[in-house]
Amino acid sequence: MNRLDRYIAATLLNSIGLVLAVLMMLAVMAQFLTEQKEIGIGHYAAVDALTYAVLNLPQLALLALPAAVLIGAMLGIGALARTHELTVMRAAGMSKLGLVRAVLTAGVLIVIAALLVGEYVAPRFEQRADERKAFAKYNNVNFAGGGGAWLRDGDTIINIQRRSAAAVFSGVLVFELTPDNRIAAVGRASQASGAGRGGLQLPADYAESRFSGDQVTAQPPARRMLHSSADSFLKLAATDPAELGLVTLYQSIQTLRANQQDSKAYEFAFWSALARTCAVLVAVVFALPFGFGSMRSAGSGARMTLGLMIGILYFFVQRTVASGTAVFNLDPLVLAWLPTALLALVAAFLLVRVR
Fold first, then answer.
1. Domain residue limits, the chain
2. How many CB atoms lie within 10 A of CB 215?
3. 89/2 Cα distance (integer angstroms)
4. Residue 214 CB-density burial (10 A; 0-12 exposed, 13-18 middle, 19+ buried)
């Protein structure tokens, strides 16, 4: 990579960083306003809502990244075009391929950062946000570090050890107490899932031991519906597939397939996250043709408006195909890549027209 490539990449990265910062400020404000209806439930206050919004920033950044890159790249290319630097570069013998290589340098750096944030930062911050929210809203929830979450509902105490790859809670212990706070029964299940109507569904491996005086009676493993308000906590803390990292999503898909369960939601989330990451590379190339021709002298406002319109269109197409996957039982692989593929086709068409 020569000095000219580094200069072009740095210009794009500065513009993209500025746009992303503005979008993140707007996203935090929107998330904070959305949380207003939750304030006042339990001990959930305005400070907790603001903290929740800030902790969700990495995940929001990943979702907004393609649009931010598109707008920022168009502004960066526009800055180079208005000062005639692109024209000088072409006149000096720099080919279209050389320009594409330079803008892709910025795209590759952003992709690497996005993959690291998506795998190691965003899921942990999002989980921390959910835990803080659950703790503030439900007085009977206690997060005991490595001991998981403890919930008391009347004479029942539930311990949930961890969140599994398939976004359900696993390692479940159930303690039933007598009116004088003695242990009446202890049960264990591999996992638990919300069953609605204030209940938890425990699977067929749920085993229970009951205490009566000096005797202990072991009950055979069987499914059980546990009536508890913990269902509300599970719904709050369960992770949406779209918020999981690529490695976790892949493990979830393998786990669901091995247990002959429906994995379409996780497959779409996996391919959609991968396509959304690759869309960053497409977006920087898409912006390049707008530095030539009639758009060369356009102002920043026009470029930002055009980039915003295309970004919103990309977002809505992505949401539409997500609904199609869930409602019409369509192929997640094809639909997840559809918005990025369309953007790539348009970018290739515009780039070929550049002289």
1. 3-137+242-353, 141-228
2. 7
3. 13
4. exposed
> At a CB cut-off of 8 Å and minimum separation 6, what does 294 contact?
none
| DSSP bridge partners of 207 | 188
- Angstrom distances, CA of residue 276 to CA of 13, 270, 288, 289, 299: 18, 10, 19, 21, 28
Indicate the Cα dihedral angle 52, 192, 143, 157, nearest 10°.
130
Tell me the two tokens of residue 94.
Answer: 């720099």
Residue carrying the six token digits 């400070």: 47
- Count of alpha carbons within 13 Å of 211, Cβ hemisphere only? 13
CA atoms within 13 A on the CB side of 331: 4
What letter would DSSP give residue 148? -
Residue carrying structure tokens 């992505």: 318
* pLDDT per residue of the chain (355 residues) written in tens, 0 to 9: 688 889 999 999 999 999 999 999 999 999 999 999 888 887 889 999 999 999 999 999 998 898 889 889 988 888 888 888 888 888 888 888 889 999 999 999 999 999 999 988 998 898 788 778 877 776 555 555 445 667 777 788 888 766 554 445 677 889 999 888 888 899 998 877 765 555 677 888 899 999 987 888 888 888 888 776 655 555 555 566 777 788 888 887 887 787 677 777 788 888 888 988 999 999 999 888 887 765 555 555 666 677 677 777 777 777 676 666 555 666 777 778 888 888 889 888 888 877 6
The sign one gets for the Cα dihedral 239, 245, 251, 252 is: positive
233 within 8 A of 138, measured Cβ to Cβ: yes
Closest CA to 317 of 339, 295, 290, 301: 339
Contacts of 113 (CB under 8 A, 6+ apart): none
